Amino acid sequence: MQTAQELYTYEIITKEQTDLIQKAAECLARTFIGVDVSGKWVQEPMVGQLNIEYEDFYQFTKDYLDSTVEQGYCAVACDAHNNVVGVLAGDTNAPEIIGEDIFEGSFYDMNVILRVLEDVDKRFMDDYQKRNGKEIEDGELLHLFMLGVIAEHDRHDIIQQLGDKLITKASSQGLKAVLGEATNPKSMRVMEKYHNMKKYQDIEGNYIVHRYQDNRKLNGIPASVADGTYIVIREL
User: Fold this and answer.
1) Facing residues of 149 across strands?
2) What whole-number distance in Å separates Cα of residue 193 and Cα of residue 120?
3) Domains observed in the chain
4) pLDDT, tens digit, for every residue of 137-193?
5) For residues 154 and 151, what is the distance between their CA atoms, to the nearest angstrom?
């Protein structure tokens, strides 16, 4: 029996690897929009609740990868046929708060997700400034933005390997912490179990969370599926 290390190869992709960037974007878009993996339905709850189509989400993902891949924080797992079966994509940009709708047409509801992420990111940035007396700058934190795994086997091992690759690199490059937005309990468990990340508590000891029940576009998400988007962090 082969181990997951033998079944899959792992690499951090570069701007020149356009074929892998495309495959990585496809893998991420499939897992966020919804995909059946070994009889289990995998889907991001906000994406599932809103009217978001695969083509639009794929384009969003591909644009993200195209703009951040040269930072060196997009890792992929490939199977023996060079299919991308797992992706963990991040960047070292300071969070950006746009504060207005930027998506149009059939992708309009992506603005709802953007607002949720901006809400928790802004509260984190404000808290960071209170603690450190300065704003976050580019290159300080590794922001893990998207994780998608469509492999039928050894999914957890793939998640572990992808995270280890990026976090080890971030640590070696002197970054201070790894940050993420966990949008559901499953991604929270993954972050905690495989990457030693924890829910972030602000200076007053409160979790930074955007609760779906308080959002009229997202309050249809059952609390049993997900209650909100949390900031998670790991100091390096």
Assistant:
1) 86
2) 22
3) 4-235 (3.40.630.30)
4) 999 999 999 999 999 889 889 999 999 999 999 999 999 999 999 999 989 999 999
5) 7
| 45/42 Cα distance (integer angstroms) | 9
> Which residues make Cβ contacts (< 8 Å) with residue 75, sequence separation at least 6?
10, 11, 12, 13, 87, 88, 89, 162, 165, 166
Q: Which pairs count as long-range contacts for 163-168, CB under 8 Å and 24+ apart, including other chains? A: 163/88, 163/194, 163/195, 165/10, 165/12, 165/75, 165/88, 166/12, 166/73, 166/75, 166/88, 166/90, 166/142, 167/142, 167/195, 167/234, 167/236
Nearest-5° angle of CA 20, CA 23, CA 29?
A: 140
